[in-house]
Design a protein that fits this description.
Helix content is about 5%, strand content about 45%. The chain has 3 helices and 37 strands. Strands 9, 10, 11, 12, 13 and 14 form a 6-stranded antiparallel beta sheet that branches. Strands 26-37-28-33-34-35 form a 6-stranded antiparallel beta sheet, with no helix packed on it. The protein has a 6-stranded antiparallel beta sheet with strand order 27-36-29-30-31-32, with helices on one face. The structure holds 2,5-dideoxy-2,5-imino-D-mannitol. 2,5-dideoxy-2,5-imino-D-mannitol binds next to β1, β5 and β15.
Length: about 550
């Protein structure tokens, strides 16, 4: 393998070995956080899918239990695919998941499972009632593209959930609504909750967020009423693009429809993460009254490397999510528990000016596994580049033609992480500021991760990732946080308005040989008003 064993992540979730993908049915039950996930017990490539199961007190230290859901009945014989948990009215969790019940084609049905022993806080055994499957593709639904039931929400004596699909013979992604009183008999609502011309919708997620400007989360069944300003978020994982997109809008319960606030919302492409982050799912954490987002990050080395390493796939650090006070987008931030891994002696820089073309090393700590927070100040926006109208809506393309080494006006400035001593290898995480587009006085801020120099190894997939940051930089201030974990760079711009996770596989910048720098490739000075970097300890991680 060209991938060094020291590139295995230290504090991102992963099992001892083998392939993982989607997070499933995250929940909090009797003092324990549960995470189930798509897992191949037999190897480091996708296949033989079961639900692996881990538990934690703090979402950071994990203990692995035996798989919770494995093929055992007719309606899941060929795979136990993604699904979700719902806390039913008496506090018992119910899991709904997709079963594949034919070997030749991926014929998909939805099954239900309940805990065998409700008083076991670890929920180790799951029962599949004999009346499974409980939802089958009927009425013209595409049976091979019909999966990933959501957490159900409750109102007027009925549960409702969504199943992701694509219209038969077409390319409209849809979320069908099913209703039930008892998790046994489900009937489809005639019109889907929503649809858009995007191709198959995998792993839909649908939940309320408070629109009162605060950050607390809401239980999935909470509805808007006169006293409570609530918005709903609909997220879909687009199979064709491999990104998780969401829209903010209103849930009309009478009509069982979701209406995006922005009529162009379905085309506007807000993403949870502009990098490697897919098939995500949220849950409401009653212990800390917050909504938490889990997402899967695949490898970007080769399958041959994955087999040689013996593992593939991680989960991103769980993120708290809430609605931005503008109401236009979500904000995400690593759960506060991750800070318990920070070492005692952080290193910091204060009021350090970085001149055009200059880079400043952050020394005095190991940075292969670290947490870095930086506040930048740009003294003047005068020299900002003009924004090419043709690229004004395409962050990804903009970043691919103006990567970290393409000199700009205000920026590119940011961090070089997982850098080798002589900088042959480095992953750039940075901002670039453009002059306000015509008819606006708000400068445009682009955030990018550029891994094109991250490794001297060949055969790695090294796409630049980028998103715009909806922040007002006229006061010159912007912040960046990066969670660095050996082969992961997970970054949060402007307090979590734009997030980018990237997988990189350095050949030199490994372990003690990984360096950290602040760089400035613009024409204007920038100032690091404050940078703090912590080494990150290794938690208990499923026995590794
Ligand atoms: N992964 C699961 C499916 C889901 C896809 C199969 C998304 O249920 O649609 O492993 O990554």
């Amino acid at each position: 393998s060209i991938v060094d064993s020291q590139l295995r992540t230290g504090y991102h979730f992963q099992p001892l070995k083998n392939w993982i993908n989607d997070p499933n049915a995250p929940m909090y039950y009797k003092g324990w956080y549960h995470l189930f996930y798509q897992y191949n017990p037999k190897g480091a490539v996708w296949g033989n899918i079961v639900w692996a199961h881990s538990v934690s007190r703090d979402l950071i230290n994990w203990v692995s239990l035996k798989p919770a859901i494995e093929p055992s009945i007719k309606s899941d014989k060929y795979g136990c695919w993604s699904g979700s948990a719902t806390m039913t009215l008496d506090g018992t969790p119910a899991i709904m998941y997709t079963g594949v019940n034919r070997p030749d084609v991926n014929y998909q049905v939805q099954n239900v499972a309940f805990p065998k022993n409700k008083s076991d806080p670890l929920l180790q055994e799951w029962d599949k009632p004999g009346h499974n499957p409980v939802i089958v593709p009927e009425g013209g639904i595409n049976a091979t593209q019909f999966r990933d039931p959501t957490t159900a929400w409750h109102a007027d004596g009925h549960w409702r959930l969504l199943v992701g699909s694509v219209v038969t013979g077409g390319s409209r992604g849809v979320a069908y609504v099913y209703r039930s009183r008892d998790f046994r008999l489900w009937t489809r609502v005639r019109r889907p909750l929503h649809s858009a011309p995007t191709g198959m919708w995998e792993c839909p997620d649908f939940y309320p967020v408070t629109a009162d400007g605060r950050q607390h989360g809401l239980d999935t069944s909470v509805m808007a009423n006169d006293k409570r300003p609530v918005k709903h978020v609909l997220k879909n994982s687009l199979d064709l693009r491999r990104y998780d997109y969401y829209t903010v809008g209103t849930y009309d319960r009478e009509a069982e429809r979701f209406v995006p606030d922005d009529p162009a919302g379905d085309e506007h492409h807000l993403r949870y993460d502009y990098g490697n982050f897919y098939a995500s799912k949220t849950f409401y954490d009653p212990a800390k009254r917050r909504r938490i987002l889990w997402g899967w990050a695949n490898e970007s080395d080769t399958a041959v490397d994955d087999v040689a390493k013996g593992w593939a796939g991680i989960q991103a650090i769980p993120r708290k999510v809430w609605l931005d006070p503008s109401g236009k987008q979500l904000v995400q931030w690593p759960i506060e528990e991750v800070e318990s891994l920070r070492g005692k002696r952080p290193v910091s820089l204060k009021d350090r000016v970085v001149r055009p073309g200059e880079h400043v090393e952050v020394t005095g700590l190991q940075t292969a596994q670290a947490d870095v927070e930086v506040s930048f100040e740009v003294p003047s926006l005068e020299g900002a580049e003009a924004l090419d109208e043709a690229l004004a809506y395409d962050a990804q393309k903009l970043c691919s033609v103006r990567g970290a080494d393409v000199k700009g006006g205000v920026g590119p400035f940011g961090l070089w992480v997982l850098a080798s001593a002589k900088l042959e290898e480095r992953t750039a995480v940075f901002f670039r500021v453009f002059r306000a587009a015509r008819g606006s006085n708000k400068p445009v801020v682009l955030m990018c991760t550029d891994p094109t120099k991250s490794s001297r190894n060949p055969n790695l997939y090294q796409p630049t990732f980028a998103g715009f940051v909806d922040t007002d930089i006229t006061n010159g201030k912007i912040s960046l946080r990066s969670l660095i974990d050996r082969s992961v760079v997970e970054s949060f711009g402007a307090g979590g308005k734009t997030c980018i996770l990237s997988r990189v596989y350095p050949s030199l910048a490994i372990g003690k040989n990984a360096h950290l720098y602040v760089f400035n490739n613009g024409k204007a000075d920038i100032k690091v008003t404050q940078l703090t970097a912590w080494e990150m300890k290794k938690p208990l991680m499923n026995g590794a």
